[in-house]
Amino acid sequence: IERLRGRLSKSRSALGQGLLGLLGAGDLDEDSWEEIEDTLLVADLGASTTTEIVEKLREELSTRGVRTAAEARTALHDVLTQALWPEADRSVHALPHTVDGAKQPAVVLIAGVNGTGKTTTTGKLARVLVAQGRQVLLGAADTFRAAAADQLETWSQRVGAEVVRGKEGADPASVAFDSVKRGVDAGVDAVLVDTAGRLHTKTGLMDELGKVKRVVEKQAKVDEVLLVLDATTGQNGLAQARVFSEVVDVTGVVLTKLDGTAKGGIVFQVQRELGVPVKLVGLGEGPDDLAPFEPSAFVDALLD
Ligand code: GDP
């Protein structure tokens, strides 16, 4: 929590301080409620979530008979946490399967538009899994961005995972296929596939990412499709999320660059729009800057 707090400092000033200032000021008239609403909107919570939170907060303040600033903070904390689905399953499913008596690796596809932090997230996630004692293989299927495979190879050396890469410009699906095949043959626990993130048109994406998934599924079950979104892009990131979720069944979101934005509130909107939980957050460029998303701790970091 301490680390999150430090990293989220910009989000805090935008949301937490504003709200607590307003709530702590004593009796709330309609103008104050409007200001609370504005604060939530400015922090990128989106219109529907904002309305819901304000209604719930009004209700909670009155049913709890809130008098003090500390009580108001607790009520606010609870309402915001509830809005983030504290009960959702946020584990990354990356355990191997047994199919017909043979071990089969878990397959995790990492999707997202280039520049969002896809490759970095793939590397960081590999590091987490390797640290848990799992054998991991990385698939460099982002064959369009010239440096992506090199970058992933650097990660593979850093974390101790094998990497499978194709020639530059190779078909992403063929590299994905080769990676998973290699993972099955080598008996690894998990294959993480860094996919190509070109989003020219929905059809193009459908062809590329849809094909990657179909081809991989010929060999092993796809356990996770993690969509990487850059928190600093706000509404734009949300629009990307919509397109991806129409093309593949996204199972979880990784929200990157939360360390560099005042727009932490995008978490609320992303979950609501996609109907899938944010599972991981990126809090920096370093190898250990990937953290599980914990609603209550996140809200604490926003408010304290
Ligand atoms: P890709 O094109 O989606 O694979 O993006 P990259 O993984 O190459 O990342 C793009 C840039 O964002 C790189 O400079 C990364 O170091 C940086 N980056 C990735 N995740 C984070 C994060 O959580 N926080 C910050 N501050 N930078 C990040």
UniProtKB/TrEMBL annotation:
Compartment(s) where it occurs, according to its Swiss-Prot or TrEMBL record: Cell membrane; Cytoplasm
GO biological process, one term: SRP-dependent cotranslational protein targeting to membrane
Residues reported to bind GTP: 112-119, 194-198, 256-259
This protein's record includes keyword Ubl conjugation: no
Enzyme nomenclature, EC number: 3.6.5.4
UniProt keywords, alphabetically: Cell membrane, Cytoplasm, GTP-binding, Hydrolase, Membrane, Nucleotide-binding, Receptor, Transmembrane, Transmembrane helix
Cellular component per GO, a single term: cytoplasm
Catalytic activity as recorded in UniProt: GTP + H2O = GDP + phosphate + H(+)
Source organism, top-level taxon: Bacteria
Sequence ranges assigned to domain SRP54-type proteins GTP-binding in this UniProt record: 277-290
Assembly notes: Part of the signal recognition particle protein translocation system, which is composed of SRP and FtsY.
Function recorded in the entry: Involved in targeting and insertion of nascent membrane proteins into the cytoplasmic membrane. Acts as a receptor for the complex formed by the signal recognition particle (SRP) and the ribosome-nascent chain (RNC).
Official protein name in the record: Signal recognition particle receptor FtsY
Gene assigned in the entry: ftsY
Residues of the full protein shown: 199 to 502 of 502
